[in-house]
Write a structure and sequence with these properties.
By secondary structure, the chain is mainly beta. It folds into 4 domains: 123 residues, no CATH class; 83 residues; 97 residues, Immunoglobulin-like (Sandwich), CATH 2.60.40; 215 residues, Sandwich (Jelly Rolls), CATH 2.60.120. Helix content is 6%, strand content 44%. Strand 26 and strand 27 form a beta hairpin.
Length: 546
């Protein structure tokens, strides 16, 4: 700091990097315009302070004062006055209206504010530019991700940043309008969990004056993921796909007759999801994931996973079935086709056209060989039809109500587009309305798929429910197709694996068995140039248990 004790104001350096201190007596202050000019000369952020020093009767000259007062003492005295009387009356330069001086407001004091009399003394203090109050505003505020709202404006101090659920972090950078101001923090990375909200604080501290605080509220969107992975304990009885038509999220678990308990586990794909599991047995629902069944009993497990956002949900339905003991089922009727037993079967002679099919059913197309029944389709003209094939049924010879039907069979071989084989039950004469239950249906248009269907009459229309399994492993090999029919439910299996069930319009009348191989039809379409003829539906055996 440079202390200058001039004989007059003209000796003050006016250097913005210095501190200029003048003791003014009546000799060098009578010209108010001259002092005002000196103060104006030091504008540009330099603060000027004047105190009225009532040293009455003091008769000393400037040089004598300097001889008697050391520079160190004078400096201490100046700063004492500055801190003790900082809130003096201030006048903005060129204004003339009074206001209360504030350290954050750079002002100029006019000499006319003080009228020093003869023998009084005044102190004029001009500080360097580092003393002036600097700006506490931000120049910029940027983010590395998300959207800043509202758009940055240095006069606004509150902002919001929204991140989507996939974005876990954002870096906020800020710079001050005044390069000498300090920004804390000037750059910082914030990591957020799903649904988390963080308020970031950015402070701008000027060289002098008040600190300004900017706040940025960061919000990461809640998770919308609700999916789960299903497993079982013990794992040797796994979750299997289950195919109700036009439905997803359906699965099944098959327990052998000597296993009564299985636990269904739902592993969340996202930790924030909430999972609830309910098990319903015989119409009684419980909140649990443990299933305990008696022989032949079935449980319906509903697993609901709700995402963190509370909107997105995923529902899984698992049918758990415990097989009956072999001794629980009694074989009541069967045919293993060592020969064609016409006491059990009728061979059709029929110019069939139902469902738009193209074949003529002839007894000659029904044969037995190698311990299997063969229903063979041929490309040959007969009575106005371009194809012949075979159909057998037990109408008038055997029918039953409730039980388990099991048929081991092989579908027509490769290049089977246009074939439509089925094993099915048809309502006996005198039944209540229309009922048809298909143990197995296949169309060559979908060579890896079989259907399970239940057709029924409601009022004047026929409706149906059906499921499917796709793909069938090795579809042109032998598989066992099973239907379990009870008073309240129909259940379909392939190779002892449940793949569909329904409780809707279960038949309550006796039904007989039909097996056939149709050609063409509105559902599967006609054969094409690649369709292989002759081709057969091969049945190894069929059994009925009750």
């Amino acid at each position: 700091m440079t202390l200058v004790i001039p004989g007059s104001y003209n000796r003050c350096t006016g250097n913005l990097n210095d501190t200029c201190v003048s003791f003014l007596t009546s000799d060098n202050i009578r010209n108010k315009k001259a002092l005002h000019g000196q103060i104006n000369k030091n504008r540009g952020g330099i603060a000027a302070f004047v105190w009225d020093l009532p040293i009455k009767g003091a008769k000393f000259k400037e040089m004598n004062f300097m001889k008697k007062v050391s520079t160190r003492t004078l400096a201490a005295f100046v700063f004492m006055l500055f801190f003790l009387f900082g809130n003096c009356t201030a006048y903005a330069a060129g204004d003339g209206s009074a206001s209360s001086a504030d350290a954050s407001d750079p002002v100029f004091l006019e000499s006319s504010a003080y009228d020093l009399g003869q023998g009084d003394a005044g102190l004029y203090l001009a500080g360097p530019s580092s003393w002036q109050a600097t700006s506490s505003k931000l120049k910029s505020l940027t983010i590395s991700a998300g959207t800043l709202s509202p758009a940055f404006n240095p006069n606004k101090t509150s902002y919001t940043v929204k991140l989507d659920e996939k974005t876990s972090s954002v870096t906020i950078k800020a710079s001050a309008a005044d390069k000498k101001a300090k920004v804390t923090p000037s750059s910082k990375k914030y990591n957020l969990k799903h649904g988390q909200k963080i308020t970031a604080s950015i402070k701008v501290k000027p060289k002098s004056g008040k600190t300004k605080t900017y706040t940025v509220t960061i919000i990461r969107a809640k998770s919308t993921i609700a999916s789960c992975t299903l497993t079982t304990s013990p794992s040797k009885y796994p979750i299997q796909k289950y195919y109700p038509e036009a439905q997803s999220g359906y699965f099944s678990v098959m327990l052998p007759s000597d296993v009564s308990t299985v636990t269904i586990n739902a592993k969340k794909s996202n930790a924030y999801a909430k999972v609830s599991t309910k098990v319903t047995i015989n119409g009684v629902a419980k909140t649990t994931n443990k299933v305990v069944l008696n022989n032949g009993q079935m449980a319906f497990v509903k697993i609901t996973s709700t995402a963190q956002d509370g909107i997105n949900k995923k529902v899984y339905n698992v049918v758990v079935y415990r097989l009956k003991k072999a001794t629980d089922w009694k074989l009541v009727w069967s045919d293993d086709f060592g020969s064609l037993n016409l006491s059990k079967w009728n061979r059709a002679t029929q110019k069939d056209g139902s469902n738009g099919t193209l074949q003529y059913y002839r007894p000659e197309n029904v044969t037995v060989s190698g311990g299997s029944l063969n229903l063979t389709a041929k490309k040959e003209s007969y009575d106005g039809k371009d194809y012949t094939s075979g159909l057998v049924d037990t109408k008038g010879k055997y029918s039953f109500k409730y039980g388990k039907v099991e048929a081991r069979l092989k579908l027509p071989a490769a290049n089977n587009f246009g074939f439509f084989p089925a094993v099915w039950l048809w309502q006996s004469v005198g039944g209540n309305g229309y009922y048809e239950t298909d143990i197995m249906e296949f169309i060559g248009k979908y060579p890896n798929r079989v259907y399970a269907c239940n057709h029924f009459e409601t009022g004047s229309s026929v409706k149906h429910t059906f499921g499917l399994i796709d793909p069938i492993p090795n579809p042109d090999q032998f598989h066992t197709y099973t239907l379990e029919w009870t008073k309240d439910m129909l259940k379909w299996y392939i190779d002892d694996k449940l793949y569909y069930y329904t409780t809707q319009n279960v038949p309550q009348d006796n039904m007989y068995i039909i097996m056939n191989l149709a050609v063409g039809g509105v559902w599967g379409g006609p054969p094409n140039s690649n369709t292989k003829f002759p081709n057969s539906l091969v049945i190894d055996y069929i059994k009925v248990y009750q």
